[in-house]
Design brief:
2 iron, 2 sulfur cluster binding, FAD/NAD-bd_sf, 8-stranded mixed beta sheet, single chain, FAD-dependent oxidoreductase, alpha+beta, 2Fe-2S, FAD/NAD(P)-binding domain, Rieske Iron-sulfur Protein, binds flavin-adenine dinucleotide
């Protein structure tokens, strides 16, 4: 089988410099501490600073290298197919608030880009959800009707600039796209100074609610009147958000394409094997991004195969020979289509959270940053109730029970399935689970032949990690924790690395 093409790195990260903010140097005090520097954290930090608060934005790695550095970066209130369901499940009033709040998120992005003259390859684009076969066309038509009834700039169309026929599409006019890191890194420059800070390479490990709150990190302690957890999934388990949502991983390939062959607009398909499509300026030409093959983190999947399917699609549909980039990332999906934005628990009246953007966090994440800053500033916000993190959750709905059952089944299954016992057959560049003296060990042999052995128990809730061959990572099937081949935390919720196992 041919090897995968394309650099295994996000185009947004590859085409921007790594930020170099200091780690937390000593104990400090601010009005608001914000944990996590993705689109939610940066948006909230900038708004709060603009409102006169001192803030500390604390990031365990570097700014915008989580989901926000690996997104497709369509800024749109068209979220695949959602409005017909929202009207059916929640009623027209709540569906309208969802629409308005996302349009407000887009407007905030545009306002800052214009005000700050941010050079971030921003362009206005129409967004489409398309059905290739007649099978899904009714849903698309119903979505167009629902969106129109809510006042969104929607219509049902049969023609697009895609180089293949479609059965129909819902089109939203005047949506937008950008280079997400050019936008976020520019915005972040507004944060430090006048008592406000950005700290990188600083991992938050605990938060105690109080007046003030105490934030414990691997570098020291901070105190803050209010704390926002914008770490994608909160690293604190006490709000149970890991059980109210699930992590979905999705893949993207990027290929250079002549401008006259590139489609105009942003697209997402329907049905099981849907594709997400957009373009972005690239070396004087255009980079075509194709996304898809999403699945729950840790689910049995051939990661190389996922990229190959996207490459095949680029080849078949757009005549692409090779890809320039490939990358993947994950986001939390909520069970009722709505993000959770508000307090972490009823007792945590000074600790706030935003999670469950369900792979549409450019408009929603911006909106979350706006809503969180309003909550902290005591400004009444019309969206607060809709997204209330403490709402009666569908924790016990059919879907969430099934999702949680998958987790439980997986947990039990992982524990009983026969593990390979022989370390000698771990090939170079490969990872395998082995049993050593009854302990489950995750063993990885690097290209020089050195074996790296760590405990296979995820440090979050002790599920057993799985080897992910394309990303060369250990992925936890339960709540989305991911670790590097030698056991270092890549994605939350785990805070600690996999424990080293010395087999000598
Ligand atoms: C493949 C893919 C494509 C997508 N495409 C789109 C799209 O086209 N349009 C759209 O609207 N949305 C899209 N999304 C969704 C969107 O990218 C996300 O919803 C959004 O980026 C989430 O932002 P965030 O701030 O919650 O998380 P992140 O960007 O992940 O930020 C969280 C940060 O917290 C840090 N952190 C974690 N734990 C700690 C800790 N203990 N201490 C300190 N820091 C910590 C992490 O390092 C990270 O930088 C896509 C998502 C994926 C995965």
């Amino acid at each position: 089988m041919s090897s995968l093409t394309g650099k295994p790195v996000s185009f947004w990260i590859d085409s921007t410099a790594t930020t170099q903010y200091p780690a937390l140097p000593n104990d400090i005090a601010v009005d608001v501490a914000i944990v996590g520097a993705g689109i939610i954290g940066i948006t909230a930090a900038v708004r709060l600073k603009q409102a006169g608060k001192t803030v500390a934005l604390i990031e365990s790695k570097h700014l915008s290298t989580g989901a926000s550095g690996h997104t497709t970066a369509k800024i749109t209130s068209l979220h695949s197919l959602i409005y017909a369901d929202l009207i059916k499940d929640l009623g027209e009033e709540k569906a309208r608030l969802y629409a308005e709040s996302n349009e407000a998120g887009i407007a905030q992005v545009v306002e800052w880009i214009e005000q700050e003259q941010i050079d971030c390859d921003f362009s206005r684009q129409n967004a489409y959800t398309f059905a290739e076969s007649t099978e899904n066309v009714d849903k698309v038509e119903a979505e167009a009707k629902a969106a129109i009834s809510l006042g969104l700039p929607a219509s049902f169309v049969k023609d697009t600039t895609l180089p293949f026929p479609i059965a129909g599409a819902v089109k939203f006019e005047n949506q937008a796209q950008f280079h997400v890191r050019k936008y976020l890194l520019h915005l972040a420059k507004k944060i430090p100074g006048e008592g406000s800070y950005i700290f990188e390479n600083t991992q938050v490990r605990g938060v105690e609610n109080g007046t003030p709150c105490t934030i414990e990190t691997d570098r020291g302690t901070l105190s803050a009147q209010e704390v926002i957890l914008a770490s994608n999934l909160p690293m604190l388990d006490r709000g149970l958000f890991f059980a109210k949502s699930y992590p979905k991983r999705s893949y993207i390939v990027g290929a250079s394409i002549a401008r006259d062959r590139a489609p105009e607009g942003m697209f997402i398909g329907t049905g099981e094997n849907y594709r997400s499509i957009r373009t972005t300026p690239y070396n004087g030409d255009v980079l075509l991004l194709i996304g898809g093959e999403g699945h729950k983190v840790g689910e049995e999947t051939q990661t190389e195969e996922n990229y190959r399917k996207l490459e095949d699609y680029a080849r078949d549909r757009f005549g692409i020979d090779t890809c320039d980039y490939r990358w993947s990332s994950q986001d939390m999906v909520s069970f009722d289509n709505l993000p959770y934005i508000g307090n972490l628990t009823p007792a945590d009246n000074h600790v706030y959270v935003a999670t469950g953007m369900s792979l549409w966090g450019m408009s929603k994440g911006t909106m979350a940053g706006m809503l969180l800053s309003d909550l902290i500033l005591g400004i009444e916000n019309p969206w607060a109730e809709l997204y209330d993190s403490l709402r009666a959750t569908p924790f016990v709905s059919q879907t969430s029970i099934k999702e949680n059952m998958d987790v439980a089944i997986r947990w039990v299954g992982d524990r009983v399935k026969g593990l390979n016992k022989d370390l000698s057959d771990v090939a170079k560049g490969e990872g395998k689970l082995v049993t050593v003296d009854g302990d489950k060990v995750a063993a990885y042999r690097d290209e020089s032949g050195t074996l790296h052995t760590v405990s296979a128990l995820c440090t979050h809730l002790n599920c057993i990690v799985n080897w992910n061959s394309a990303e060369k990572s250990w992925d936890c099937p339960c709540h989305g924790g991911r670790f590097s081949c030698d056991g270092k935390v890549l994605n939350g919720p785990p805070l600690a690395d996999l424990e080293k196992v010395d087999l000598s």
